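Good day; I would like, with your permission, to put a structural problem before you. I would ask you to consider whether the tokens describe a fold that such a sequence might reasonably adopt. The full record is reproduced below for your convenience:
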Amino acid sequence: MLDRYLRAIVEITRQARSETALQIKLEHLLSRLLADFDIPYQPFANETLKSQGLSQVDSTRPDSLFGHVVLDYKAPRLLITSGKELRKAQEQVERYLDSVTGKDHAEDAQRGAGVLWDGASLCFLPL
């Protein structure tokens, strides 16, 4: 069953010309995949943390937020081609996680996680 999703990810990544195009198609695919396991996937996508009630003043916009998991998309194959871009992306997700979990709240901070995805590689960032 997962083979068809893996093939779809490869094809989506091959065809995508931008981060946005990749995000739209991978979000849809991820939703279908999780539905196969009866997991409802309805993330906040490109909405400010303030509009989601997670911050009173924060105007940052994670690509996708599902609970305390920040999923940040990058341009196709960017993360495997540039260590500098990977570090920059990791720092960006860490800032999102700090905002989402409230880094002053140790209990909440333990529940946060970040995922970077460029279609070709995944990077998991526990808080």
